[in-house]
Amino acid sequence: MRIGRWMRLAGTVLVLTLAAAACGGDDEGGDGGQVNEGASFAEGTTMARLQQEGAVTIGTKFDQPLFGLKNLEGKPEGFDVEIGKLIAGELGIAEDKITWVESVSANREPFIQQDKVDFVVATYTINDKRKEVVDFAGPYYEAGQDIMVAKGNPEGIGGPDDLAGKKVCSVTGSTPAENIRTNYPDADLTEFDVYSKCAEALKNGQVQAVTTDNVILLGLISQDEESFELVGEPFTKEPYGIGVKKGDTEFRNFINDTLQKAYDDGRWLAAWDATAGKVAPEKPTPPTIDRY
Amino acid sequence: MDAVLDNLDTFRQGFITTLALTVVSTVLALVLGTLLAAMRVSPVPTLRAAGATYVEVVRNTPLTLVFFFAVFVLPQLDIRLSFFVFAVIAVTVYHAAFFCEAVRSGINAVGVGQAEAARSIGLTFTQSMRLVVLPQAFRTVVPPLINVVIALTKNTSIAAAFGVVELTAVATRLANANSDAVIAIFLGSAVCYLALTLPSGWLAGRLERRVAVAR
User: Fold this and answer.
1) Domain total in chain A
2) Do B172 and A5 count as a contact with CB atoms less than 8 A apart?
3) Are the beta carbons of B163 and A200 separated by less than 8 Å?
4) How does DSSP classify residue B61?
5) A152 touches chain B (CB under 8 A)
6) Which residues from chain A sit within 8 angstroms of residue B169, using beta carbons?
7) Mind telling me how many Å the CA of B165 is from chain A's nearest CA?
8) Sheet holding A119-125, edge to edge
9) CATH numbers and ranges of domains, chain B
10) Are residues A244 and A132 part of one domain?
11) With contacts defined as CB-CB under 8 Å, which chain B residues touch A129?
């Protein structure tokens, strides 16, 4: 028994040592890199300009497993990245002509407004407050707040109502944490600064559940499928859109058309299968595009 | 500014948690630190080595790592406590090393003759420490001790990243919820920290004048 404990301790130390090396894979993404050579666009549009330049700058996350995560070769990979390549491809721009710019949550709007990027694909939830400063194409995926539990779900948690009296972990001040605090006050909320600590606490049994957007949870699960599982009953709607400059309706329509094409010919699903689909429990259906 | 005033109750809860964490940890760390200092000047070589090792290892490890070990490694040894208690352990263990060194410098400032005289009238090592050396030592080290207390107060903010909802955690949460009042909210939390640390400094000044050794 004692030896078992010390072995686990030794294991933890080993894991810590290897942590830096362990996060990152070398899988190539899907076939989002098809280049549409014969595309032609009306004069003066963003599409024509980008096609002429033969290069595009896309903002995405670099620290979001399965959606936008920079691998050890320094290239981002994930579902958002595949969607970005898909759009670039329709503009006639090859994968190696894309410049990826890290866009954390706080600097997505400024990057679009200041033309630092041509568009943003970065687990970017469409909401009215953001629509005041940028425009959104899509949504190309609908995420939702979900719950991650220990493998086998020993507490039998089936949804947020089952969290009453249980310790549930999220990140300080995040939208999911505030949702629990406001709408499920019986849950015992524990907050850390990053989700990886929540995962560690769940593994140790210090909390019984971790809650945030299902895709973030999937990312955590992909790194330790032996210990965690997803409840799989999202209880909020987080439609992810592609942020473009406010007022650039032509570009927004073009991206919407591109997404619709990718839905119809299976490239969207192929991109999903090559990235987040590897750990997601079920295949998503493409959300209806909101052409406002 | 409204964001701060509307959330005074939340601030108050965070303030109380920070205060509790500071007071409990300070008392425990001062006791542990004094014991360590006594170990480091004791006549027993094993104790001296143990005390020195503790101080060198803990003092030279970042507090965040001490927290990490307390919060995530102790549970693997089947030690199950609340996150607040883990935070108290981490803060205590870390600052005991600094208290130890402050107290030890005080002990070294007490003339050797005092300890020799105490031993020569038949007091044991423990008695001479307790009755003769430490009471004089503490008087000379009030300022450095308060330095450690102030550092400890501010260092409790690291607990925010380890599951304790204290001042910094509250400020982070409110700042995320009120993105138009971030500066006001963090200024508010700074004022709360000042409300803890400024009185300690002031108290230290008074205490120092009262107990100063006339030499």
Assistant:
1) 2
2) no
3) no
4) S
5) no
6) 172, 191
7) 7
8) A98-102, A56-60, A119-125, A238-245, A134-143
9) 2-211 (1.10.3720.10)
10) yes
11) none
Q: Judge whether B97 and B37 are in contact, CB under 8 Å.
A: no
User: Cβ separation of A172 and B176 shorter than 8 Å?
Assistant: yes
Based on the fold, state whether residues A122 and A182 are members of the same structural domain. no
Classify residue A278 by its DSSP letter: G
Listed in sequence order, the DSSP H helices in A171-227 are: 175-183, 195-203, 214-223
Residues A137 and A54 in one domain: yes
Gap from B73 CA to chain A (nearest CA, Å): 7
On whether both A132 and A69 belong to a single domain, the answer is yes
Domain around A265: 46-142+238-278
- Is the domain of A222 the same as that of A248? no
Q: Judge whether A32 lies within some domain.
A: no
Q: Are residues A202 and A86 part of one domain?
A: no
Q: In chain B, which residues touch A (CB < 8 A)?
A: 71-73, 75-78, 80, 83, 160-163, 165, 169, 172-177
- Kindly state the tokens that stand for B88: 């108290």
Query: For residue A1, is it within any domain?
Result: no
Q: What is the pLDDT of residue A27?
A: 42
Looking at the fold, whether A109 and A197 belong to one and the same domain comes out as no
- Nearest-Cα distance to chain B for A173, in Å, is 4
In this complex, the residue of A9, A191, A205 whose CB is nearest that of residue B163 is: A191
A126 and A60, same structural domain? yes
Query: For every one of its 215 residues, what pLDDT tens digit does chain B have, with 9 covering 90 and above?
Result: 677 888 889 899 999 999 999 999 999 999 999 999 999 999 999 999 999 999 999 999 999 999 999 999 999 898 889 999 999 999 999 999 999 999 999 999 998 899 999 999 999 999 999 999 999 999 889 989 999 999 999 999 999 999 999 999 999 888 877 767 778 888 999 999 999 999 988 988 898 888 876 55
Task: Return the closest-CA partner of residue A60 out of A140, A125, A122.
Answer: A122
Question: What is the DSSP secondary-structure string of B69-121?
Answer: IIIIIGGGGT----HHHHHHHHHHHHHHHHHHHHHHHHHHHS-HHHHHHHHHT
Cβ contacts below 8 Å, chain A against chain B, sum to 59
Domain boundary among A193, A209, A230: A230
State the pLDDT at residue A277.
86
- The residue ranges of chain A whose pLDDT is under 70 are 1-33
Which tens digit of pLDDT belongs to each residue from A164-208? 999 999 988 788 898 999 999 999 999 998 888 999 999 999 999
CATH of the domain at A105: 3.40.190.10
